[in-house]
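U., I forgot to send this yesterday:
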Amino acid sequence: MKKYVLSSLVVSNLVPLLGILLLDWSLFSVLFFYWLESAVVGIYNIPRMLMAGSTGESGSGGGKHRTAGVLFFLVHYSGFMAGHGVFLFALFQPASIELSAVLLGFVSLGISHGVSFAVNYVGHKEYRNTTLSEQMLAPYQRIVVMHITIIALGFLISLLGTSAICMVLLVIVKIIIDLVAHFREHLRLGTYAGAQEPNSE
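Result:
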């Protein structure tokens, strides 16, 4: 099943490449697509937090502490997303967004991260290998460095000229960063360190 998770991750990351080459996406649309990914990661982190540290034998192991943690994450992460969005709109003008970037973003990213959640976090019981506090911080650890790199490259591209070649290179760099982050995360949670896969064909 691991190969399907990696396949969905790579396919979702190739969507901006198709947008650039076939749908004439602007640089801002590509960066907005990656902003949407942060939102999707945050959404999936809610059930991850609810399950974190659970044995799986009696539900999610919720309670007041867990609920408070989720609410705090929602408020803090929403502020993080809002600040990130304002920064994108202020720095990259004109801020034109193709509708296809929004629709394909939610669909492809939702499926990709949904597959990872179902197969790795639930199927391989990664939730047993993390805590509520660790899972609360996990999205920041995964996306902050990635987005700093992408924004820096995006700013450089906007200065040099938004050619298709430059934007394709941006997508390639993002795929590499995402693959490294993916393996680091799942190594930490034990999936790629001898964890047994569910029986499947």
